[in-house]
Amino acid sequence: RNMSSAGPEGRKKMRECNGLIDSLVYYIQGAIADHEPNDKATENCVCILHNLSYQLEIELPESYAQSIYMQRRNISSNDKTPGCFGSRSRKVKEKQQDTPLPEEKSNPRGVESLWHSTLIRIYLSLIAKSTRNYTQEASLGALQNLTAGTGPMPFAVARTVVQKANGLPSIRTMLHASHPTVKKTAVSLLRNLSRNTSLQSDIAREVLPDLVSILPESVLESDIVCETAASICYTLFNLTQSSSHNARLLLSANGLPKIITISMNDSNMFSKASRAASVLLYSLWSHTDLHSAYKK
């Protein structure tokens, strides 16, 4: 577990180690089958897999990278990499998201297991069944890592989480976890998932009211609460930017007073959340059909 957080070279060596990833997955599957998702060894295994999934898309061996990105050749390479909210045209973004991964292998081996739907379902199962904070956080964090990039792998993983494995109910439960880092990681995962336009209506329907409910009412008391609030605002931005329906959903969940309060919090410590809330307000105002409702 310590070695897996040693940096890119350490991750590379461990991913290449014959049988290591397969053994970790095998152990966790056994623990879940035996209804023992809370043992320390399971926590260690998940934390290792979490670390090995970090920067995975960038650090993949050339052979995998070629097979995964081969289908993207028709997407213009001249487009700039998107920043926070993306500078690409919607057409390119949608085209990118619709690019499929090569067909999944029924028996993945080694590094292939890290993004396979089998392991994605294992993470979701641990989120639902484990009561151990580190296990929950590592499972959420692994999914966050796998959905972090802009290529076809993160979008394929996102679709598996939301549509194929019905993972949103388990993630939604973690939004109300008492442990602040578990909550923060769940929000960060949702922020990644919400970038996928084809999933936004599902995410808004399932978790938008919950996201609003966990926004702080007033002054933010710590860095981690501030970061979580900023992430929630950016997730809400993604969900409402192109959808007047989702913006109305935010309004009916009484989100506007909270967002205004956060945007007006000008303390340096909380500037990240304040800025995110302001960007969200600016975007919400672009739905002109809702202006009278906002004013009320």
TrEMBL record:
Its main location: other. Residues 79-109 are annotated as: Disordered. Residues 94-107 have a biased composition (Basic and acidic residues). This is PKP2 protein. Belongs to the beta-catenin family. The gene is Pkp2. It comes from Thinocorus orbignyianus. PANTHER family: PLAKOPHILIN-2 (PTHR10372:SF25), PLAKOPHILLIN-RELATED (PTHR10372). It comes from the Eukaryota. It is found in: Cell junction. GO terms for biological process: cell-cell adhesion; desmosome organization; heart development; intermediate filament bundle assembly; protein localization to plasma membrane. Keywords: Cell adhesion, Cell junction, Repeat. GO terms for cellular component: adherens junction; cytoplasm; intercalated disc; nucleus; plasma membrane.
